[in-house]
Amino acid sequence: MSIDFWQTALQSDPTICIQAMINPDESFDPAHAMYGIRLMALKGRAPGYLVKIERRHVGYTQWFGFALCGGQAAALIAAQAWRDEQTRRLEPLTKQEFVSQIRPNNTSGAAGVVRTTQRTKKRSGQIWSADYWVARPPRGIKVGARYFSISRHGEEGAKMLAFAARQEMETLCNGYHAPHVPEAFQLGAG
Q1: Distance CA 111, CA 121 (A)
Q2: What is the pLDDT of residue 140?
Q3: Has this prediction a pTM greater than 0.70?
Q4: pLDDT mean over 132-145
Q5: What string of H, E and C letters represents the secondary structure of 90-154?
């Protein structure tokens, strides 16, 4: 690594330099060195590192004080080791699990399925309407929404067809839902 890198790193955050010296390989990314780790001086406590990781809507927190660990460098090493162990051990939600979660305001009973009425005005001025159950695709899936007519399939039939279509769309979701997690810390990396 260049001298400019070290000078910039020392000015911005000395802990990055500690991490780079411990792991001097070329793949070191300073932006990821402190993922989930914050340098803090809590009221009534000596300074240290607070590590916070969340997996499956459960928070995991651990404190690594400088005094307890034998200094700032040792506390950082311990904090990073704990964080790395937790990210390896705790599996995040799969994208399929994430998109199938039912939100509190859901009234249909399935994620991405809604009942809707389409109204159109004909040239004669007459208003025409049709009721549908709609299966909407999860974000990131290149599939269009599917409409099931209530007049054709019946209320329950259209609803069941929409549920089945949404389940089919959810099977297209691959991988893990970890939007704020650097690639190096996602399951299967490293």
Answers
A1: 31
A2: 79
A3: no
A4: 90
A5: CCCCEHHHHHCCCCCCCCCCCCCEEEEEEEEECCCCCEEEEEEEEECCCCCCCCCCEEEEHHHHC
